[in-house]
Amino acid sequence: MTANNDLTARLDKGEIIFLDGGIGTELERLGAPMDHDTWCAVALQTHPHLVKDVHRSYINAGADVITVNTYAATRIALRNAGIEDKFEEWNRLAVQLAKETLAECDPSRPVYVAGSVSTFASSSRFGRSWKDGTGELKLWFREQAELLVESGVDLLLIETLASESSVMSAAVEAASEFDVPIWVALSCARDRKTGELSLGVEESSSQSQTFYAYHEPFDLALDKLVAQGGYSALLVMHSEVDVTQPAVRSLCNQYKGPVGAYPNAGYWQRPEWIFVDQISPDDYVAKARAWVDEGAQIIGGCCGIGPEHIRALAQLH
């Protein structure tokens, strides 16, 4: 049985699968500099040993899936930084570093490598809206997915943080051309005017409100995504912990395949993550238990969630 078929079989049996936590924020914790345009992707070139250290920490913490450091290695982000020629090199290198680390750790359990196909720098959060045309974006998503699959990832993780549904749809359509499992992750926030869950993102803390964007009602975006198909799991990503449970409930109500969650803690002040209002590992497990009770099978963390949180998730077994 191939690795991706094995992962699918485990989900079909109802097992809980543990994702890793934040990659970029853990690199920042370890001292890797963050770049204004390419955020944590630059560490692939400047600090590859730290990229491997992050993967190793999550493998040792019990993650079943580690995510390669390609979230910010999109063609548009590298173009904005003036280093578009690094696109193929960095995406292939990210997979190489993850697979090297996995071979060095030689865990006694299966660990799968996920390739992040991201909408980073292609949403209105970064100053450009693609609502009126996503053809070029689809080509970029497809080539990133192709590079990751050719380099040996076991699955593709489509990370659509802060993206309009049209951008999300283009990414899913592009990635679904490849013969590996496709997991799609979307963010949500509670609209401050209506109180309803929305497709979008809010990053706030007890100290400041840094960013929020609401694109459309969350359930409406889910309706579109479920109708589109072309993937094997839906997840809530990079959302406030307190909105994750109702978002998971919506996913489980509208989608009959595997569902998951990996929220964040803190907020982004470009290009760095601000580690405030951090949630303890034990409190995170208590929240995650509620997501599992709602029906989630894939549990991990996004920005601000580290190896200690992933290690604590073992209590969910």
TrEMBL record:
A Pfam cross-reference name: S-methyl_trans
One example GO MF annotation: zinc ion binding
Span of domain Hcy-binding: 5-317
Record flagged with keyword Methyltransferase: yes
Gene3D superfamilies xrefs: Homocysteine-binding-like domain (3.20.20.330)
Keyword check for Transferase: yes
BP GO annotations: methionine biosynthetic process; methylation
Entry keywords, A to Z: Methyltransferase, Transferase
Name of the molecule in the record: Hcy-binding domain-containing protein
Natural source organism: marine metagenome
